[in-house]
Amino acid sequence: MAPTRTSAAALTPVPATPAPDAPPVTLGTFRATPLARAYVEQVLDSGRLSYGPFSRRFEERFADIHDSRFAVLSNSGTSALHVALQALRELHDWQDGDEVLVPAVTFVATVNIVLHCGLRPVLVDVEPDFYGIDPDAIAAAITPRTRAMLPVHLFGQPCDMTRIMAIARRHDLKVVEDSAETMFARHAGQMCGSFGDAAGFSTYVAHLLVTGVGGLSTTSDPELAATMRSLCNHGRDGIYINIDDDKGHDRATTETIIERRFRFERVGHSFRVTELEAALGMAALEDWEPMIAVRRSYGDHLTQRLAEVGDRLQTPARRPDTEHSFMMFPLVLREESKRELVNHLEANGIETRDMLPILPQPVYADGTLVDVTRSRFPVADWIDRNGFYVGCHQDLMPSQIDRLADTLVDWCRTAPRTQA
Ligand SMILES: Cc1ncc(COP(=O)(O)O)c(C=O)c1O
Q1: Distance from CA of residue 159 to its chain's centroid?
Q2: Cα(187)–Cα(324) distance, rounded to whole angstroms?
Q3: Ligand 1, atom 12: nearest CA belongs to which residue?
Q4: Closest C-alpha to ligand 1, atom 13
Q5: Mind giving me the DSSP string for 287-307?
Q6: Which atom belonging to ligand 1 lies closest to the Cα atom of 214?
Q7: How far apart are the CA of 179 and the centre of ligand 1, in A?
């Protein structure tokens, strides 16, 4: 990881412009399949936009696939995580400023939901090869005020949940899995999102299932599920959450529901989503296996192709006994800043994004919301400077994946080395 400088004056510069008609290598995709169109049409014909049959089916099927008893649909992955943590805070009576452990590499939403819940995020460094929260670094971050951990299954690969859950049990901590980037992936034979007390998934643009906006919280705890559902619906009494809830009961029950129909029990949110998003989600869910199969084969192919430049560019390692869903393909230059390579890729029609840096974010810079001292998180700091990701999705053609690999290999072989 130490920065080096190598003279490479004799190397040939890499061409900076793509072939004029080369299709861009995008990060994500959305395709309105015939099934998606048919489901959306069904919703439009039904005249029912609020929580209804598609939302219910989507929740049930998603929960089932992810080894969980319940899924609660909401309008984003952020909302799904927010209600999970807020519900745990309510049910376990945590106090303002109690601490939640969060990895130092993640999307800002993971940190922000802790702040929105009135709790204090405490960063933990990540693993240098798998990029998950580092189980070896967790113990040092635990204090008498630590209440929960938020492991983040980044880029499509689950964290080391076997060790994380053992630590949680030992220290009596709750666990919310941030699975916004990872679906359909097992660790030790068990689906991501089913290890902790709850999990949050995202169906935002360019994710594995795309509904436009959307999220799902999963849990197998009925009380937690009911609290999360209430929180998504303004804090409503769980007796009446959707417009079917007052139908089909005997007279006495109906009258009770009518009496309590407009009762709010907690300070909740308007995190609802419509049947249109659920219809898109349901259509995508019916096709998840071929979608993931293509991503996994592209992930394997890129890993093989890039092995020859592995001394310069690190490809994502696979955790033993763990599946990878390749929501994207993360890459880290071992000893150099990513800037030149990223600019080269972008100039060649290959989209990139930074690898989810938290430490350099202006919003946290003064250290009052969260301690972002770089020297405390050397692996995250290295990833922030040298790491980025590219697309690995099912709507890329094999020729695009090969063009991506060729471009990376050529650059690694020929571009002069720079200082990190
Ligand atoms: C790790 C992680 N957590 C949370 C989120 C938030 O999801 P959403 O954008 O649906 O709110 C994202 C979004 O991409 C994410 O990558």
Answers
A1: 12
A2: 9
A3: 180
A4: 180
A5: THHHHHHHHHHHHHHHHHHGG
A6: 10
A7: 8
- Residues lining ligand 1, Cβ inside 6 A: 76-78, 106-107, 109-110, 152, 178, 180-181, 202, 204, 215
The CA 399 to ligand 1 mean position distance, Å, reads 29
The answer to whether the CB of 355 falls within 8 A of the CB of 327 is no
Please report, for residues 32, 53, 201, the alpha-carbon distance to residue 414 in angstroms, rounded to integers and kept in the order given: 41, 56, 40
Q: Do both 135 and 274 map to the same domain?
A: yes
Are both 293 and 172 inside the same structural domain? Answer: no
The answer to whether residues 332 and 154 touch, using CB atoms and an 8 Å cutoff, is: no
Instruction: Examine the pLDDT at 242 and tell me if it is beyond 80.
Output: yes
Instruction: Supply the CATH number for residue 374's domain.
Output: 3.90.1150.10
Residues 254, 356: one domain?
no
Same domain, 295 and 217: no
Residue 78 Cα: closest atom of ligand 1 = 11
Domain, as residue range, for 40? 34-285
- Cα 71 from chain centroid? 16
User: Which of 222, 255, 285 finishes a domain?
Assistant: 285
Q: For residue 109, which atom of ligand 1 is closest to its CA?
A: 4
- Angstrom distance (rounded) from CA 357 to CA 36: 34
The owner of tokens 């359909």 is 184
Claim to verify: residue 314 and residue 246 sit in the same structural domain: no
Is the separation of the CB atoms in 231 and 269 below 8 Å?
yes
Domain boundary among 228, 251, 285: 285
pLDDT digits (tens, 9 = 90+) for 353-399: 999 999 999 999 999 999 999 999 999 999 999 999 999 999 999 99
Q: Do 223 and 346 lie in a common domain?
A: no
pTM over 0.85? The answer is yes
- Mean local confidence (pLDDT), 332-351: 97
361: its two tokens: 């974010």
Atom of ligand 1 nearest to the CA of 178: 3
HSE toward the beta carbon, residue 72, CA cutoff 13 A: 33
Q: Among 293, 318, 287, which residue's Cα sits nearest to residue 157?
A: 318
pLDDT digits (tens, 9 = 90+) for 81-90: 999 999 999 9
Centre of ligand 1 to C-alpha 202, Å, is: 6
Q: Are residues 119 and 187 in the same domain?
A: yes
The residue whose CB lies within 8 Å of the most ligand 1 atoms, and thus the one to mutate among 78, 159, 177, is: 78
**Ligand 1 centroid, distance to 78 Cα (angstroms):** 6
